[in-house]
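Message: I would value a second opinion on how I read folds in token form. Give me a protein, with the fold worked out from its sequence. Write it directly below this note and I will take it from there.
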Amino acid sequence: MATTDDEIASELLPLLRVYKSGRVERLLGSPLVPPSPQGDPHTGVSSKDITIKSPSISARLYLPTTTHQKLPILLYFRGGAFCIESAFSSFHHRYLSLLSARASALIVSIEYRLAPEHPLPAAYHDAWDSFLWLLSHSSQEILTNSSNVDHQQQEQWILNHGDFDRLFIGGDSAGANLAHNVAMRVGSTESKTRIIRGVLLSQPYFWGSARMGGFEKGRPDDSDFITSLWLFTSGGAGLDDPMINPFAKEAPSLAGLGCFKVLVCVAGEDILKERGKTYYEELKKSGWDGDVELFEVEGEGHAFHAHDTESENSKLMIGRLASFLNK
């Protein structure tokens, strides 16, 4: 007789299954790898894992060999559809180690809570809390609540090597969505200081109830899957919730984005590309007074830059991101 641990309650294929016992089986994702405290043999970048807020938020830090001066800081939210992958997976470790080396940047890659165990907005809360924790290392009290963050201790790599005048946030896919929402929340605060130098959005995961452009309409299976994905992870939020649809009528104006510049990266064969390009156009039209750039790589699919970091297009994109972090 089957037990509740064997009986499937729901599934989101090919990503995961949920059993009646509550157990979640993740079917897709790369293996976890340890950090490289003595330096990665390929990039020379050192990495280590830390706890930010036990037990919900942790991070992997990447420190390049060029540490004789203060470095740009990138607070990074990795992708994974809000329900799979990890900041400690080989998929993201390899990519961020390369980016840290190429950009000579200190990267803080956040491990946030996943659905369905922790439906959204849990990941949004974790993203904001990790941002406040990072700000608590600055010599200035930038936000009124950043000095009262619940954290174990301040991180020496950030204190010794981070340049808060060059603070960036970014992510890929679902992580890019988190980065956008953090930047919008920063823009809505009472602080008169622009805290974030730039926001980096790689193939951002935005969606909505209406199909956008011929690309989405021409790939109904992919579009239906993205719809199912949001409904599965969102804890009941609709497809036009401003968190997932920044172009919805109820969404706050993009003019309130709290940074100086934005880079939007899209892939030519990605079902999400129309949303990324629309974000670029809408931000330009919003009245926001920063600089926004669009970088499109033709012939590539979603998350190509991390799937094969040795491909020419991946190297091209990593180089573009590194340039954005250093100008």
Observations:
- Residues 140 and 164 are 9 Å apart (CA to CA).
- The chain has a mean pLDDT of 93.
- Residues 35-325 form a domain with the Rossmann fold fold (CATH 3.40.50.1820).
